[in-house]
Amino acid sequence: MKTILKIFGGFILLISIGSCSKDDFEPLDPCKSVQNYNNGMINSYSNGVVLQWNELLSQSVDQQLPQPTEVKLYAMVTLAMHDALNNVVPKYETYALDNASADASRITKKNIHAIADAAVSQAAHDMMVQLYPLATASADSLLSQVLTGITDSDLKTRGIDVGRRAAAAVLDKRKSDFQLAFESYPGGTAPGEFRVDYLPWSQPGPWPANAVFAPNLGSLTPFGIKSGNQFRDDEAPYPLNSKEYVADYNEVKSLGCKDCPGRTSEQTEIGAFWVETSSSYMNRMARALVEQRKLNGWEAARLIGLIQMSLIDAYIASFEGKYHYKTWRPITAIRNGDSDGVDATVGDAGWEPVFNTPPTPNFPSTHAYGAAAAAAVFKSYFKSDQINLNVTSPYHLPGVERNIRSFSQMAYESSVSRIYIGYHFRQDVEVGQRQGKKLGKYVYENNLRELNQCNMEENMSTSPEM
Predict the structure, then answer these.
(1) Are residues 322 and 377 in the same domain?
(2) How far apart are CA 372 and CA 444, in angstroms?
(3) Which distant-in-sequence residues (6+ apart) come within 8 Å of 220 by Cβ?
(4) 228 in the same domain as 127
(5) How far is C-alpha 203 from the chain's CA centre?
(6) Are 197 and 272 in the same domain?
């Protein structure tokens, strides 16, 4: 027996052939019929394969690339996975591959894993191989493992095709993106202006002399917001002769240097714990929450996609601000404290931050921006700020765990860590937090939203076999 369900505007046509038991389908609401029907199938799809590919992505690229490049790669791969699933059975809006005409025919709770596993695996594989060829062998291996475990069928073939199309659509949508790379940068000479010559990147290496990274990132087409300057507000960096700047200067001077005696052991741990790339530690947190909250595969792919979308847009927005204001980093400010025209700032020509300062201007903090954006997405997704999660930092403090009781705590620690390692002044992180929170809220409210089946203009048919 088959049931064919089609949506025509706001009307439902139900054609029943033969007879079905009362368990074959639930009563249909005029507005949410397809949505609710699909939920039954989607809820039966576990997060296992989604997390397998997410973990492989982490193992392949974490801390292997310049931070903006890693963040962008994460966004593109995870969004392709999301789009693939939502072209198997439409549940949420997509990023690149339109799912208005997605064909969910013959998909049931019993066979949804076959097509969905094939789709998400092929999408993730194709993206990783294209964007990070060094991952080809491991991606080929996992794809073969997943596909070998699926019985050959039309659904498996359809899933592979959906995955290929999802990856191709994301790549096509981003085909005009310029390369993110090191470039020589003149910098300024006046007090307060960004200077490269106090950073390790001023010396020729795998980069040109006086190099910064991706000075044009702020003009890259965003993924989920309107423009790089959408959240830049009226607050500019403090004037050097202001009491606020002097307070920030003295704080980072006393807390952000190597072996600073004024920094507590807790501050030292926070500084090192959160130093890694935002995309990698947010990815681990998202995976842990997916498992803790027992999200299904569709929910997992959407959450991770939104998190990574918010992070790349936070990088774009913060870099737009950095190269708009072009302010100096603490290492430059403190080493030139006696010649900045401000009597209240005492210089230290030998001052060193805990880690090598990133090759970008100062204001606002990208790390704070991204942490606040991700926290806003997490809070919106789970409709609460409260969590209870032990998180790790395997690349810088292996074996150390921090217990996170709220997303706000995570965002705060990640932000102030940049003071404790000598990367930023407090104003940089506070502005990054404020703007990042707005960005994350915007990304969540305007992207990958649950579909309203009543308002879909295109037809979709489902015909579960009974």
Answers:
(1) yes
(2) 13
(3) 177, 178, 228, 316
(4) no
(5) 31
(6) yes
Q: What pTM does this model have?
A: 0.90
Whether residue 145 lies inside any domain: the answer is yes
Instruction: Using alpha carbons only, give the angle 222, 206, 310 rounded to the nearest 5 degrees.
Output: 20
For β-strands 461-462 and 397-406, DSSP reports them as: unpaired
| Residue span of the structural domain in which 25 resides | 3-177
Q: How far is CA 392 from the centre of its chain?
A: 18
Residue 367 dihedral angles phi and psi, to the nearest 5°: -65, -45
CATH number for position 362: 1.10.606.20
Q: Same domain for 241 and 344?
A: yes
Residue among 37, 18, 19 at smallest CA distance from 27: 37
User: Would you mind telling me the total number of residues written for the chain in this entry?
Assistant: 466
User: Can you list the residues of the chain whose pLDDT is less than 70?
Assistant: 1-39, 453-466
Measure the CA–CA gap between 170 and 393, rounded to whole angstroms.
Answer: 30
Question: What total of structural domains would you count in the chain?
Answer: 2
Distance (Å, whole) CA 411 – CA 434: 11
pLDDT tens for each residue of 303-340: 999 999 999 999 999 999 999 999 999 999 999 999 99
CA–CA gap between residue 447 and residue 449 (Å, rounded): 5
Nearest-angstrom CA–CA distance, 24 and 1: 10
Q: Where are the beta strands (DSSP E) in 359-427?
A: 386-393, 397-406
Cis peptide before 30 (omega within 30 of 0): no
Residues 127, 133: Cα–Cα separation, whole Å:
10
Strands 3-8 and 461-462: antiparallel
In the structure encoding, which two tokens stand for residue 120, read together? 């998400």
In this structure, the answer to whether residues 273 and 365 fall within a common structural domain is: yes
**CB neighbours of residue 240 within 10 Å:** 20
Query: In angstroms, how far is CA 122 from the centroid of its own chain?
Result: 21
Written as one letter, the residue type at 81 is M
Domain check: are 12 and 106 in the same one? Answer: yes
Assess whether 99 and 200 both reside in one domain.
Answer: no
pLDDT of 330 reads 98
- CA dist 125 and 98 (Å) reads 20
Largest CA distance in the chain: 90
* CA gap 298, 306 in Å, rounded: 12
Residue 106 and residue 242 in one domain = no
The rounded distance, in Å, linking the Cα atoms of 377 and 84 is 21
Cβ count within 10 A of residue 463:
18
Question: b/e map of 136-158 (b: 16 or more CB within 10 Å)?
Answer: eeebeebbeebbeebeeeebbeb
- Backbone CA torsion sign across 440, 442, 448, 451: positive
H or E element: which one contains 271?
helix 265-273
